[in-house]
Design goal:
Elements (H helix, E strand, L loop, with lengths): L3 H7 L4 E5 L3 H13 L3 E5 L2 H5 L9 E5 L7 H10 L6 E5 L4 H10 L3 E4 L4 H12 L7
Parallel strand pairs: 1-2, 1-3, 3-4, 4-5
Helix pairs in contact: 1-6
Length: 136
């Protein structure tokens, strides 16, 4: 399914921060990414992530759009305004072209619809960590 080179690039002690208010989504992504050799930190809100020490160590962020208080796109904008350039993947159960456009314009590397397949998520993470361009 994936080449050994892609598997190797994912497992170079990449630190992935998953920000989603759904505990089952966090657990599923955590299990998938850990099985690929990544270090994973999960957060139930954007505010929890922004206040964590993992903010500075994160290689890539995966965040849900629909969260209370600060949504995933607002988190992305906030991070960019603070100077954090970590690759960013947006996931949503409510895909909408205007939301997708806003996410990509704000600097998201990838936009996925929930439930996202494991191969699609891994492909987005791998491309983001490799510094490749935007994947829609």
């Amino acid at each position: 399914m994936f080449s050994r080179a892609k598997e190797a690039s994912l497992s170079k002690l990449s630190v992935i921060s998953v920000v989603d208010d759904d505990a089952s989504v966090r657990a599923a992504m955590n299990n998938l990414l850990r099985s690929r050799g990544c270090v994973v930190h999960t957060f139930g809100s954007a505010e929890e992530f922004l206040g964590s020490p993992q903010l500075n160590d994160t290689s890539c962020v995966i965040a849900d759009v629909q969260m209370s208080a600060m949504n995933g796109i607002e988190l992305l904008v906030n991070m960019r305004m603070r100077g954090y350039a970590a690759p960013y993947i947006v996931v949503t159960a409510f895909p909408d072209e205007s939301v997708r456009t806003r996410a990509l314009q704000a600097g998201a590397n990838c936009f996925l619809t929930k439930p996202c397949s494991a191969p699609n998520l891994i492909a987005c993470v791998d491309a983001a960590l490799a510094g490749e361009g935007t994947m829609a």
